[in-house]
Amino acid sequence: MKRTHIFLFVFCWITALAGAQSRIVSLAPSLTQNLYLLGAEPQVVGYTSYCEEAVHGQKEIVATAVKVNLEKVVSLQPDLIITTTITNPESIQQLKQFGIRVETYPTPTSFAEICEQFVQIGEQIGKTEKARQIVASSKQKVDSLAGVMKSYPSGKMFFQIGANPLYCVPPKSFMDDFITYSNGRNIADVVGNGHINRETVAVRNPDVIFLTAMGIVGDDEKKIWMRYPEINAVKNNRIYILDSNKSCSPTPVTFVETLDTIAQLLR
Predict the structure, then answer these.
(1) pLDDT, tens digit, for every residue of 180-235?
(2) What pairs with residue 25 in β-bridges?
(3) Peptide linkage before 89 cis (omega within 30 of 0)
(4) Do 32 and 44 meet the contact criterion of CB atoms below 8 Å apart?
(5) Residue 223: CB partners within 8 Å, gap ≥ 6?
């Protein structure tokens, strides 16, 4: 172990003996959102540069999407670090060697898994009851919206979440549930990893196109799709731009908010 790491390990050990209050570092934007939804903002001492809360917050930025500043994290004396499988596994292992509790969450594959993880986070930070209340409310709203959309005409849908290369919502992902609850069919149902090309989209001829691409200008992508007049979504002016900060973030509340927006657009 490097000399710096030995120092940090001893530092964490002494801090633990001193009985520090609960301090949390979040290494993923969606996990930060979940913590804030649970009212754990005072406990959060560090997060990533991609966290929306970092724009106006006063917490320490300790990581990007994948790279972690280990020294900075440890200096914050966290009792708990929550992260996803996107974080470098080596960094996660090193943090554990410092005696810090690290909980890793995979990207949820459904709305049900979003809710399960939310409750797990609540249990870990002493917010179990609040987590269950939020999940119960979210499930009720999703069921209500899905019930309304059962009367909507079933159509083929295309969800775009990346442009260069073109990337779409694949099956067995939590965003695919937006299509399921909307009484629609995902034209990318045979796409394993989400990569697709515009010609394939045109051939499969979606009735609705949703643009949730992060890091691109939605208006520009809409203009590109307007060059394909043979697509039903273009013919009928059914290309919609969704808030990617909500639609791409796996939290119970943002899932409901996005589904509600979809319901309003499709009615």
Answers:
(1) 999 999 999 877 778 999 999 999 999 999 998 655 578 889 999 999 999 999 99
(2) 46, 81
(3) no
(4) yes
(5) none
CATH of region 3-128, choose from 3.40.50.1980, 3.40.50.2300, 3.40.50.150, 3.30.1360.40: 3.40.50.1980
What are the domain boundaries of the chain?
3-128, 151-266
Instruction: Say which DSSP state 174 is in.
Output: T
Residue range 237-261: mean pLDDT, rounded: 95
Q: How far is 29 from 79, CA to CA, in rounded Å?
A: 19
C-alpha to C-alpha distances, 103 to 83, 91, 159, nearest whole angstrom: 6, 13, 30
Mean pLDDT of the region 91-100? 93
Same fold for the pair 3-128 and 151-266: yes
Average pLDDT over residues 155-161: 95
CA-to-CA dists, residue 114 to 29, 109, 198, 222, angstroms: 14, 8, 30, 29
Q: Which two tokens stand for residue 239?
A: 């290309």
Residues in the chain, total: 267
Nearest partner of 76 among 21, 4, 1, judged by Cα? 21
Which amino acid is residue 179, in one-letter code?
I
> Could you tell me if 22 and 45 are in contact, meaning their C-beta atoms sit under 8 angstroms apart?
no
Band (pLDDT 50/70/90 cuts) for residue 141 is very high
User: How many degrees, rounded to 5, is the angle at CA 84 between CA 186 and CA 145?
Assistant: 40
Q: Which region among 37-51, 75-89, 173-187, 201-215 has the lowest average model confidence (pLDDT)?
A: 201-215
Q: Which CATH code is given to the segment(s) 151-266?
A: 3.40.50.1980
- Rounded Cα–Cα distance for residues 267 and 259 (Å): 12
